[in-house]
Structures are given as C-alpha cells and as structure tokens.
Design goal:
Distance between the termini: 37 Å
Radius of gyration: 24 Å
Length: about 525
C-alpha cells in the first residue's frame, strides 16, 4: 500500500521524484489552481503559459509532464487537469479532486515519492485528494514478475515489466496538526485500503479464489480488525436447508459457503445488514455462457468483496452503528451433479423456485442470504451484486442501478452514491413483471420477461425480504469490473464499486440521518 503523509513543507524545498499541481480550464486558457503558487513562482509566474505552449488545456483526465526549473528540488512537475475553473469564491468539487489525484498517481507509477500540491484548503479537499491518490496508485501485481525479471508477452524488448505503484505521497498545503485534516487522511487510508483489498479479491484468478479460500480471507480480515466471522460450510448448509446456495454450488468441486460478518458498537441504535453476491466463478452452469462472455467471470463475486470491505471499514472507522455482512459464496459450474434447467430448489425461506436458467444463479444465492439476514430483524438490508447484463444495457458500464421497496430509502442511497462520486440511478420495480415469473411447478421461477430483466431480478429478490424490513438492491454489473483503459482513480479490472456508498450509508445511519 502506498504511504501517505501530510506536510507543511514548501513546494520549493521538498525533495521528491516529482511534484503534482492542478491546472484548470480558464476563460483565456489554462489557469494554475490554488496550491501551486510556489511552483508557479519558480517558473517566474509563467507556468500557465508554459503548459499552454505544450498543448495543455486543463481538461479533466489530462496530465502534462515538464522539467522542473532550478528553483525546485524535484526533477519533474506534473500538471493534472481539473476541468473548468470554478466561479470566484467557489471550490473544486470533491470528485474533481479525487479524479485528478488518481490521474497523477497513475502517471507516477514506478516513482518512489511525489508531492501533491493540489487545492486542499478544507478537510473535505484533503480527504478527496488522499482518496484519489491512494486509489489511483493501485496495481495488481501478485501474479506478475518484478520489473527486472518479467518477460515480455509480445516478444518486444522491455515491454514485459510491471511498474510498481507510487511508493509515497506527501500532501502539501494540508495541516498535519489540524484535527479535521488528520481525521480526513485517516479515514481515506482506512477506506482505500479496504477498497484495494476488494480489488485484489476481484482480480484474483478463480483457481485460487473459491468459496473456501474467500471465507478464509474474510476470517483473517475480521480477526485483524475486530469483526466477528462465522462460516457456514457445505455440510451445515445442507442441514440448514439453504437450497439456493447448494443448488448453485453443487456442480463444482468447491462447495458453497455462507459467511456472516458482525461489527457492533456499544452505543449503536441502528443495525444494517449488507448482503453480497459471491459467485467466485460463473460459467453459467448447464446454461453455459458462450465464448466472449465468460472470460471475466471471476468478477462475479464483486458484491461479496464490497460487503467485506464495507463491514471492515465500519469497524476500522469505529462507526456507532451495528453492521452485519453476509457473503453468499458459490462457484457455478457445469457437471454431472450440477443443477439442470427445470429443477426445483427449496430455498432457505421454504419457498420453491423452478430454475429455468442456471445462469440466473446470483439471485438464488442472494435469496437465501437475504432470508437469513431478515431473521435478525435489521433496520435495513442492502444487497450488492453483479446481477444482470440487462442493467448494463440500461445504464452502461459506469453506473449501477438502485431498486428498493421504499422510495425514500432508494432516494437516500442514490444521493449518497452521487455524493461520494459513484454514478448510480434509481430504478423501478414494476409489479406487472411479476407474472412473468409464474411457474406451473413451483412457487416462483428464477426467470421472467426478457425485457426489463434487471427489474425482474430485483422483483425476485424482493420476494425474500422479511416483512416490514426496508431493503435496497444495488446491481453493480456495469461498474464492478472495468475492461477498458484506466481513467481517473479507476484501474483496469476490479474497481471496488459501491464500497464508498455502503460506508457512507453506515455513517449516515450512525448519525441518525436516515430515520
């Protein structure tokens, strides 16, 4: 993990491999952002002109490298775009700072130390820059050689090395002795460490990450941070009647698990339950996915990774709220023992489900976990899942959908997601779609109408929520795994989508802001 510290040192005196400054799109060209005054002075007040001559505009996502002048003790200056400059007396938005810091951190891969001289007047700015920098500095290198020993995959000389993340970040302009600034950095470090843990889990190949090993990782994380962990293994699942989890997992050599995480606070007045879909590999089962649709299916446990990260974050932050997490872990594989289309499963709730498509498996494991979570009567349940391709069709690759049995709660979750910089959109649960899940054999089928498939999945899950319990469903199928080029603080591969939303939801619940 990249180290991060606050410093009152001047930009002109600090020794590092590079210094990062912000540049915005001004009315007459690039404009140097607050925090970069000392660097601008070293360029005789002409930094904006130099950047413009190099083609910099200040647009978001832009990063311009230039040699440092003799007045600085760093060899390189990196100017990152902040987008349109705010109006007078207005500040840069948190997400703008977060993304810019992420761009800078990615640009500095391989460097040992960098100073960030971005706008950090308020504690919120400090937290945003720290979050963005630490998330942008992420790299998954567990299965790669070092830069010196890695072999090229193309045969071209020198292109097989993997740069390590930026080693150390120093935030300039922040105040190390200011309680608010210090707390902001501590929160950012705790949160980003757990997000990056989730990213590691999502990126881990399925031959190494399967229900048993995932449960072991969750157990170790819980032990480290004071979270109680209970693992229900395959034998206990059979005894308990968890037909959904067992039905999905029975085709694999790696049996399913249900992991319960529990963080409690002595002064807590509310309890929230988080439920995560944890399909460690999804082949589709007997309803096998076609080529081109199964290569990234190691990411189908992103919801469980998000729940683990959120519960541990709540513990690390000492939030005054009780949080339980439920990881519904299974591997969906075809074999002679796999569930067949047409089979009927008796769920943990007692309800029977006709399986029309074994690739609609996430809702089956979630249904068991939601029923089990409901037994403890939490104030709210939020489930998180890479559930449907239909949601990706509806909202694209960067936005997750939010469904709920309570419109006000859905609105609150949406507002929280937008506040923390996670794109989301509220979605309906049209009751007329329920009829499509009618089964001539069982209480309900696991498939319904093709059109509105993401909403159908939400309606299916709603059937397993305990009476009187507020519930929301986050379908993160789009943003959970990024296959394109990195942008902002978002890497290629696992992203950690929804974690910041869940943690902020826990904070709001602790503060009594959600009723």
């Amino acid at each position: 993990m990249t180290a991060l510290t606050l410093s009152t040192a001047g930009a002109a005196t600090l020794r590092a491999d590079a210094i990062v400054v912000g540049v915005a799109k001004g009315a007459k060209g690039p404009a140097v952002a607050p925090g970069a005054e000392a660097v601008d002075k070293a360029y005789d007040g002409k930094l904006a002109s130099v950047l413009e001559s190099l083609g910099a505009t200040g647009a978001e996502g832009e990063a311009t490298k230039l040699p440092a002048p003799s007045g600085l003790k760093v060899p390189i200056v990196i100017a990152v775009g902040l987008g349109t400059a705010p109006e007078k007396d207005e500040a840069y938005g948190a997400e703008t700072l977060r993304r810019a810091a992420g761009v800078a951190a990615r640009t500095l891969s391989g460097a040992k130390k960098a100073a960030f001289a971005l706008p950090t007047e308020a504690a919120e700015d400090v937290e945003a820059v720290a979050e963005g920098a630490l998330l942008g500095a992420y790299a998954f290198t567990a299965y790669r050689g070092t830069e010196k020993t890695a072999k090229s995959t193309t045969g071209a000389k020198g292109d097989g090395g993997v740069k390590q993340p930026l080693g150390e970040i120093t935030l300039l302009g922040a105040k190390p002795r200011d309680k608010a600034h210090k707390a902001a950095v501590e929160r950012a470090i705790s949160l980003t460490e757990e997000i990056n843990r989730a990213r590691d889990l999502i990126n881990t190949p399925p031959n190494d990450l399967y229900p048993e090993t995932f449960a072991a990782i969750a157990t170790a994380a819980g032990k480290e941070h004071g979270v109680k962990v209970q693992v229900t293994d395959e034998k206990a699942l059979v005894k308990g009647g968890y037909g959904g989890l067992l039905g999905v997992g029975q085709g694999s050599e790696h049996g399913p698990r249900l992991v319960r995480l529990e963080y409690t606070h002595a002064k807590a007045k509310k309890t929230i339950a988080l439920v995560g879909k944890g399909i460690t590999y999804d082949s589709g089962g007997i309803s096998l996915k076609p080529p081109g649709h199964n290569e990234t299916m190691k990411c189908d446990m992103s919801g469980a990774a998000a729940v683990l990260a959120a519960v541990v974050s709540a513990a690390r932050l000492g939030l005054q709220v009780n949080v339980t997490g439920w990881l519904a872990l299974a591997e969906n594989m075809p074999s002679g023992t796999a569930t067949r289309p047409g089979d009927v499963l008796r769920m943990y709730s007692g309800k029977t489900v006709e399986v029309l498509n074994t690739d609609a498996e996430g809702r089956l494991v979630l249904a068991d976990a939601i029923t089990r979570a409901s037994e403890e009567k939490p104030d709210a349940i939020v489930d998180v899942a890479t559930l449907t391709g239909a949601m990706v069709v509806a909202l694209g690759n960067r936005t997750f959908g939010i469904m709920s049995n309570d419109e006000a709660f859905r609105t609150s979750v949406h507002e929280i997601a937008e506040e923390v910089g996670e794109a989301s959109w509220p979605m309906p649960l049209p009751t007329e779609l329920l009829k499509g899940m009618d089964s001539p054999t069982a209480d309900i089928a696991n498939m319904g109408e093709r059109m509105g498939g993401g909403l159908v999945a939400g309606l299916f899950l709603k059937e397993f929520v305990g009476e009187g319990i507020t519930w929301a469903h986050l379908d993160i199928a789009g943003p959970a795994y990024h296959e394109g080029a990195p942008y902002g603080y978002t890497p290629k591969g696992g992203t950690g989508s929804s974690i910041r939303t869940l943690v902020k939801l826990a904070e709001r619940t602790a503060a009594g802001d959600l009723g």
